[in-house]
Amino acid sequence: MIDVTFKKGDITEGIIIKIVKYGVFLSFDGGYVGLLHISEISSNFVNDINSYFTIGDKVKVLIKNVNKEDKFLSVSIKELPPEFNPYKDIVPSKKITTYLKEIDFSKLEKALPKMIEIELEKENLEND
User: Fold this and answer.
1) Radius of gyration of the chain (CA)
2) What are the start-end ranges of the E strands in the chain?
């Protein structure tokens, strides 16, 4: 087995070994396994993870956290420097963006300051 030392902030490559609704699991050198959560693929909404990855794909990731005892890595693609991030230009689906444009947020926008004030007052009363 290869002796490797992973540390937070490293950029490394893993191989996809399992795809689930919430992300993909990757295998790394040294017997490490990692999870690339769906929220760590792009800053934009990723609807179907299967449209981006297949088992066996090699994927470059940034290490966010290392658990040496369990040999487990938390990883991200969206935090990679742009030159390493093939998913930086994911565009949200037209269906979602169209739906959001049709919602009138003006009432919420006007009411939000008062809602925040009420919640802060409740919190202050609870803490007294």
Assistant:
1) 20
2) 11-20, 23-27, 33-37, 58-67, 72-76
Within 10 angstroms of residue 71's Cβ, the number of other Cβ atoms is 15
CA quadruple 48, 50, 51, 55: dihedral, nearest 10: 160
Tokens of 63: 């290490």
pTM greater than the 0.70 cutoff: no
Pairing of strands 11-20, 58-67: antiparallel
Structure tokens that stand for 104 in this block: 């009138």
Q: Which residue has the tokens 């992300």?
A: 23
What pLDDT, on the 0 to 100 scale, is given for residue 3? 58
Helices (H), 1-128: 94-102, 106-127
DSSP state of 99: H
Greater model confidence, 12 or 104: 12
- Mean pLDDT of the residues in the chain: 83
